[in-house]
């Protein structure tokens, strides 16, 4: 086992002290300055009496200081509870109930409700820094090092605990175990666009990849953050993470008069994750950007599990519908309902994975149903492996609609709808139905610049689902919308879609 987290980061920053670690507008933070920030926060946290295993929560904007205070807490071996946008007041209060303090920066402080402030646990980041002390990581491998929260796209956000052993073993932070594939990806992260939240495990891991590889994390100014295509060009970004809705937005923007002349030649990596990427969207992205495009699959509990590259698609065109092959240090298994490995390639079953950086438990519910023997984790997704090891998703095991007692996986219905050439994106939600128990209600976004909304025949979509999945899987309602609502996590917001549907029903009653 490598020296405990975050030793590898400290060594990487020390190795190139005069290289920028962060860039935010005109401000540049060198690696030696980032180390000084971390050392001062360690000193300040120590002065507050914090010791290994103590729990502290961190809720900050995307800034060098926000990152530095998280790393400082890890140097002390604390259990760091990381908050991110999207939590309700009640959820925040519940999350911080057993922590000693909630560290917030000025921007977050101004958004806190009186109920949160009344907890008397708030510590402003500007008051944390103290005298710099030597950076000697004190975490113990078996202790919980971080608690992160899921996006809540399938229900309430869940707290996911990771030990210091899992943090230490995480693929992106340990260069000495990088495979040639990881080295090739890391080489593209010379200017990584850091935005959204520091409370995302995906963003955290890829920030680690950038810093360990010697790159610079580029933070857009707050006013410019929503204008991602222009930011990519202006800041000469080489690597970026996209959700599916954001990729679709960028592809559309580049067809507009404002977007046609943007210079995105600096891009070396566009990694799309968060939800399934329709094959036609992936093809469009590869056609526009070339071999810089890849699709990642993973979960909050495990991190990235597989990667599909443009080179994979060029070599084996059918893999455009897959999510790639097992990533660095990951094993993937497909099992039937009894827990046995499926007997032949292409058989759909439950996806189980094993990776040394997986979580150890949830904060508020039993994790035993997803944690198997020998370190295996059930992703709660359905899928299959082909003979070459490419993984194909068939839907979430619990993201289902039960129609007349027949279980249909929402992902399969969405894939059938999205396969129509006039559909850019498709999402399905389950709603109660007096006759069938539940009904599938679909939302589709027509291809922009293609057939108009009224030209997309709903009956064509119904027929496509019927032919692929059977008549009982056909959505009861299919609604064309201009765009997919997006949750704070950047993922499609199915709760908002359901609210839209209910509003339409109430308006017509």
UniProtKB/TrEMBL annotation:
Pfam families, alphabetized: AMP-binding, AMP-binding_C
Xref: CDD domains: AFD_class_I (cd04433)
Start and end residues of each AMP-dependent synthetase/ligase domain: 32-362
SUPFAM superfamilies given in the database record: Acetyl-CoA synthetase-like
Parts of the chain that traverse the membrane: none
Annotated ranges, domain AMP-binding enzyme C-terminal: 413-491
GO MF entries: acid-thiol ligase activity
Cell inner membrane among keywords: no
Keywords, ordered alphabetically: Ligase
Protein name per the record: AMP-dependent synthetase and ligase
Organism, as annotated: Podospora appendiculata
């Amino acid at each position: 086992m490598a020296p405990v987290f975050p030793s590898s980061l400290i060594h990487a920053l020390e190795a190139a002290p005069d290289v920028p670690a962060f860039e935010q507008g005109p401000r540049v933070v060198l690696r030696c300055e980032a180390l000084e920030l971390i050392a001062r926060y360690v000193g300040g946290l120590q002065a507050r009496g914090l010791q290994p295993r103590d729990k502290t929560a961190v809720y900050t904007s995307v800034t060098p200081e926000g990152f530095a205070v998280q790393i400082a807490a890890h140097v002390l071996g604390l259990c760091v509870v990381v908050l991110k946008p999207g939590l309700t007041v009640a959820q925040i209060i519940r999350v911080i109930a057993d922590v000693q303090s909630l560290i917030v920066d000025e921007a977050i402080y101004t958004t806190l409700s009186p109920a949160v402030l009344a907890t008397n646990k708030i510590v402003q980041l500007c008051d944390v820094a103290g005298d710099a002390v030597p950076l000697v990581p004190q975490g113990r491998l078996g202790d919980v090092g971080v608690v992160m929260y899921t996006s809540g796209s399938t229900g309430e956000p869940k707290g996911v605990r990771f030990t210091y052993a899992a943090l230490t073993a995480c693929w992106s932070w340990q260069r000495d175990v990088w495979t040639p594939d990881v080295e090739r990806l890391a080489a593209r992260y010379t200017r990584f666009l850091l935005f959204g939240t520091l409370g995302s495990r995906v963003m955290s891991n890829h920030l680690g990849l950038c810093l360990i590889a010697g790159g610079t994390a580029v933070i857009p100014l707050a006013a410019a953050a929503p204008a991602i295509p222009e930011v990519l060009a202006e800041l000469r970004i080489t690597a970026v993470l996209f959700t599916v809705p954001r990729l679709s937005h960028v592809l559309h923007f580049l067809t507009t008069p404002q977007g046609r002349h943007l210079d995105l030649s600096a891009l070396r990596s566009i990694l799309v994750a968060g939800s399934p990427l329709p094959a036609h969207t992936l093809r469009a992205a590869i056609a526009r950007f070339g071999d810089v495009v890849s699709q990642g699959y993973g979960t909050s509990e495990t991190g990235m599990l597989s990667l599909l590259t443009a080179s994979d698609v060029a070599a084996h065109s059918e893999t455009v519908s897959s999510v790639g092959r097992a990533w660095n240090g990951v094993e993937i298994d497909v099992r039937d309902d009894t827990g046995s490995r499926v007997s032949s390639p292409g058989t759909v079953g439950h996806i189980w994975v094993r990776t040394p950086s997986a979580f150890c438990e949830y904060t508020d519910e039993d994790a035993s149903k997803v944690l198997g023997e020998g370190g295996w984790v059930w992703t709660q997704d359905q899928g299959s492996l082909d003979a070459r090891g490419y993984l194909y998703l068939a839907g979430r095991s619990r993201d289902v609609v039960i129609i007349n007692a027949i279980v249909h996986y929402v992902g399969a219905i969405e894939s059938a709808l999205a396969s129509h050439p006039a559909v850019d994106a498709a999402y399905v939600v389950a709603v109660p139905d007096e006759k069938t128990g539940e009904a599938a209600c679909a939302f589709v976004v027509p291809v922009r610049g293609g057939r108009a909304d009224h030209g997309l025949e709903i009956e064509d979509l119904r027929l496509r689902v019927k032919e692929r999945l059977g008549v009982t899987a056909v959505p009861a309602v299919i609604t064309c919308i201009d765009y997919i609502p997006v949750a704070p996590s950047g993922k499609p917001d199915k709760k908002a879609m359901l609210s839209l549907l209910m509003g339409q029903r109430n308006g017509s009653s």
